[in-house]
Amino acid sequence: MNTITVQVPDHMTESEFREQLERLSSQDWLANWWSIADVKGERPDLTDEQARDVLINIERWHDSEVGINWQSIREIANMTYDVPEPCYYCGGNCEHDKENACDGYLGDIDEIYTAEHE
Ligand SMILES: [Zn+2]
Description:
Bound molecules: zinc ion
Oligomer: single chain
């Protein structure tokens, strides 16, 4: 067996970290991984920090009879952070995803969004 040196992350105690490492290397445990990227796939309006909050709530609130799935991720994300108002022009998420915003939002021909921010 080889020995390595690792640093304990600031958000964990040494015993929590040791327990996680033992589970990771054990053949007696199974882990199914979900990430903030999965949360943001369902809710692209969320920041990384908000997606981390959602992961914490998924761990706490998911139904163990069902497990963690796309529906539970979406529902718990929506319970944690309100769903943004849909784009007035296309019904999408333009206000919170400007890289993929529709031409209606970007041009704001009806001045809906420019009026809101005055
Ligand atoms: Zn739009």
